[in-house]
Amino acid sequence: MKVLLSKVRETLRKNRTRKLLMRLISVFSAVVVFITTYALILPAITLELNASCGIEEHQHSEECYEERLICGQEESDGHHHDDSCYEVSRELICETPEHQHSVDNGCFDADGNLICEFAEHVHDDSCYREIKTLVCGQEESDGHHHTDACYEKVLVCGN
């Protein structure tokens, strides 16, 4: 009989525990249903209400942005030195003095014989060296053409 009473007590205890667990699960289920319903209704409530903060609603679009140049370089085709950038001058490199035999220079005696001790020499192109001097005042460069990397989108709408 004692065994039977102990089994009855144990069965009652299990029933109480099961009822308590069922109540807890029911309460948690009700809370989950309430929160889910509220979360689904909240956007609709927000759309129906008028804003009371005083700030006008605004979503940024393409008109709100401006592209600004950030590379700091001017666009150019560059400069490469050609013949128009140089001035060419000639420098005498010949050490032989220029001389032409003539009566006025005293190169002939009264009989017409050559008595001049200087060799006859007229400066030609081989007596000169060409010197090219840069006169354009610009440095050679490849130039610069703006690409997408030269620009940055900046918000300009103020909202």
Model description:
- There is one protein chain.
- The chain has one helix at about 1-50; strands spanning about 65-70, 85-90, 130-135, 150-155.
- The longest helix is centred in the N-terminal third of the chain and has 47 residues, at about 1-50.
- The protein is of the alpha+beta class and about 160 residues long.
- The chain has a two-stranded antiparallel ribbon with strand order 1-4. Strands 2-3 form a two-stranded antiparallel sheet.
- The radius of gyration is 53 Å and the shape is rod-shaped.
- Proportion in helices: 25-40%
Query: What best-fitting shape do the alpha-carbon axes yield?
Result: rod-shaped
- The first-to-last residue Cα distance is 84 Å
Report the major sheet. 2 strands, antiparallel
Helix/sheet category: alpha+beta
Which regions contain 5 or more consecutive residues with pLDDT less than 50? none
Give me the count of strands.
4
Helix segment tally: 1
Q: What is the N-to-C order of secondary-structure elements (H for helix, E for strand)?
A: HEEEE
Rg, alpha carbons:
53 Å
Strand order of the largest sheet: 1-4
Q: What's the overall average pLDDT, rounded?
A: 86
Strand content: 15-25%
